[in-house]
Design goal:
With 72 residues, the protein is α/β, with parallel strands linked by helices. It contains 3 helices and 4 strands. InterPro entries: 6PGDH_NADP-bd, HIBADH-related_NP60_sf, NAD(P)-bd_dom_sf.
Length: 72
């Protein structure tokens, strides 16, 4: 299974990423790798087992699948 990444942890992004991390944990898959402009926003996701990556470039380099949730 490829590494899954997530970028964008606003209200909707954090909720969706949290559900995905819970699913990955239940399947004993690799933890979700995540990044966000404000990394502390991912603390609840980290508590669920998600793995923070402060560099978006490194996140992209490590993941085969990446979800984004951004607003402009």
């Amino acid at each position: 299974m490829p590494q899954i990444g997530w970028y964008g942890l606003g209200s909707m992004g954090l909720a969706m990423a949290s559900n995905l991390q819970k699913h990955l944990a239940s399947k004993r898959a690799l933890n979700l790798l995540y990044s966000n402009r404000t990394m502390t926003r991912g603390d609840p996701l980290k508590a669920l087992g998600g793995t923070p990556e402060s560099s978006f470039t490194k996140l992209v380099a490590q993941c085969g699948i990446i979800f984004t949730m951004v607003c402009l």
